Structures are given as structure tokens and as C-alpha cells.
Amino acid sequence: MGCAGFTCSKHALCALNILYVMVSLLMIGIAAWGKWFGLVSSFQVVGGIIGVGVFLFFVALAGLIGAMKHHQVLLFFYMVVLFMVFIVQFSVSSACLAINREQQDHLLEVGWNNSQSTQRDVEKSLNCCGFKQVDPNLTCDAACFPNRSCLPCADKIQEHAGEVLHFVGGIGLFFSFTEVLGVWLTYRYRNQKDPRANPSAFL
After folding, report:
1. Do residues 129 and 141 lie in contact, with contact meaning Cβ atoms separated by under 8 Å?
2. Exposure of 185 by Cβ count < 10 A (0-12 exposed, 13-18 middle, 19+ buried)?
3. Quick one: which of 78, 101, 104, 159 could link to 63 by a disulfide (CB 3.0–4.6 Å)?
4. Is 71 helix (H, G, I), strand (E, B) or coil?
């Protein structure tokens, strides 16, 4: 029937949603693993990643069921939600790629001041204390703190922050285009006739 046919559209949409299901389970698994082994102590970070993973899982599940059953309501719901996710993800990814050094510094400092658990995680993993200066009167979980040989964390974070933002922005941009593909496939699939149904019925 060719790739423009009903069966090809159905299989392509199913494959795309299986990919989304796997990505969502991977996100949930990595977040839970990081929390379980104490790599990340911030409940907000872990909860946010798991929340996004669960949301993506249910959206992908709705798309998968809709594709398998050629269910018009589920496919329409899936198409609308996926388009909204695309707009948000494309905007965030573009911002990550376009952010300059000054904006990056400001965002890092705001994030640092808003979460003490994140501060402890960063200090432990990067072996540094404080953001822009080391205060000997405050406690610090870094191994260098008892020796008073710690450096501020801002410089160490900046070494990796730019690369991480560009990596996250690139990955987000890639997945945002798969979402456009998903919307287009869903729109086309919804308006195709199911060859197993009544030939006079337009589903």
C-alpha cells in the first residue's frame, strides 16, 4: 500500500509512541536511581523529573492506544497535547541554546539560593564550598572543607554549565521535531479510512 497508506501511518505512529514510552520510563528510572543511591538529595529535582516522565508516559500511552484502535477522540487529544508540548519544549530548548554568560550566571545563582539540598549535592560532587566565596563559618559537605582548601563553586559550575545547556537544548530541539512529526502523522492517520471497516465509512 506504500508509506502513505493506513497501515504504514499506524505502524509509524505506534513506533513513535513506543519510543516516547521508553524515554519516559528511562527518565523515571534514572531519577529514582539517583535518589535511591543518594546522588541527588533534592526532592524537587527528583519529583520534577519523575513528574515529567509520568506525564510523557500517559501522553504516549494515549497516542499508542489511539493509534492501535484508530480512536478519533484519543487521537485528537493526543495531537493537541503533543502540539502544546512541542511549543513549550521548542521555546525552552531555544532559550538554552541562546542564553548568554550573564544570564547563565544569574540563573545559576538564583537556583543555588533556592535549594539548600542542591547546594549540598553540588558541593559534594564538585568538592567546593559556597557560590562566589567560601564562608568558613558555614557548614559544607565537601571533602576539602576540613582542610580549608575549598574553592567557590561558581567557577567549577561554569566550566560545565555552558556545555550542559547546549547539550540539553540540542536534545530538546531534536525531540521537539519528533513531536511535530507525531502531530503530522496523527492528523494524517485520523483522516484515513480503515480498510477493515465499512468501505463507505470515513473514519
Report:
1. no
2. buried
3. 78
4. coil
